[in-house]
Amino acid sequence: MTYVVKDECIKCKYMDCVEVCPVDCFYEGANMLVIHPDECIDCGVCEPECPIDAIVPDTEDDKDGKWLEINTKYAEIWPNITIMGEPPKDAEEFEEETGKFEKYFDPAPGKGDP
Ligand code: SF4
Ligand code: F3S
Questions:
Q1: Which helix (H) or strand (E) holds 4?
Q2: Mean per-residue pLDDT for 12-25?
Q3: Of 2, 46, 62, 82, which is most buried, counting CB atoms within 10 Å of its CB?
Q4: Domains in the chain: how many in total?
Q5: What is the CA(102)–ligand 1 centre distance, in A?
């Protein structure tokens, strides 16, 4: 088991999660973060930190494994992030939106830690 970042994070990317992870296993894409499943120790500390509930245990809300696959793939490609940066200015506008992966997912890497 691991925790995974899901659809909700896309275009919101609040980053409260990165500050609390004891093993620094978040990785940054252009408009979302992912968790490295092999590094996550399942402590669960990040889950309540996300203001829009984008983080879940993969056993709970990812039964088909879609998000585990995305987190696994992009954690290998994107840079590590451990320090909270500036969330997108229009993040609030995308909080309630659904189907964000299909509409906005960006495979480009983020900047990672400064
Ligand atoms: Fe980090 Fe714990 Fe969240 Fe895993 S569950 S990503 S180890 S804070
Ligand atoms: Fe994303 Fe929530 Fe972290 S919006 S960046 S998973 S705090």
A1: strand 3-5
A2: 98
A3: 46
A4: 1
A5: 26
